[in-house]
Amino acid sequence: MSLLSKVKQPDAQGRIQHVTPESAGWRYVGFDAYQLKKGQTLNLESGDRELCLVLVAGIASVKTQKAEFPAIGKRMSPFERTPPYSVYVPHNDRVEVRADTDLELAVCNAPGHGSLPARLISPADVGVEQRGKGRNKRLVHNILPDNEPADSLLVVEVYTDEGDSSSYPSHKHDQENSNETYLEETYYHRFDPEQGFAMQRVYTDDRTLDECMAAYNRDVVTVPRGYHPVATLAGYNNYYLNVMAGPVRLWKFTWEKDHAWVNSDAYPR
Questions:
Q1: Which of 67, 81, 157, 261 has its CA 20 to 30 A from that of 229?
Q2: Phi-psi bin for 208: left (phi > 0), alpha (psi -120 to 50), beta?
């Protein structure tokens, strides 16, 4: 089974990516991406899943069964590097999204079981941080981290400058023990300029899984287990939207021992 989901031409609903637990061969994470034209309307039912709608680019009006969020959104490109507007939608809800401008929308989903209400996640609600140093720096927007309410979902977006690495030093979160939580993960990649690509490797200690792939604009990489670093290429800045979920809603991971030194004062040398 390929870990790379290539972008598709928009279908009648505007959907360009569709990753389900069944298609990915796992249990928790689902991910869809849409490109909607101004005036187009998208109707969704959450069923037994909770949703996090991330406005990657554009302005939209979002309505659930009990809440309305008119004309939300500000950035017209993710590479404006401002935090996005997002909407949390609980399970057993319906949502209508009307594109007030051309809209790039990510719909993140995972099992829902609680009693949380639908809510707006505004840019002011998003934690912004810089991680790493040297050629391993990135800008992080924590949209739905584990210290904010949700049943299963963890959602974050990351910016990596041309020639730099991220999701690095190599780390993994595929065990259920005191050091790690089991979390499935998707990467929705975007590039500036759009013809760019990055290299992403997904691999385990015993190398029973070891895949390296070129992710292009709007491709999705699925990470069922193992380490999953990203390396950008000269000339192309990278953005990716991460979705994670598992049986415990907590992000705990371990570093690959060979490369953990990159976190130390010995780097950059």
A1: 81
A2: alpha
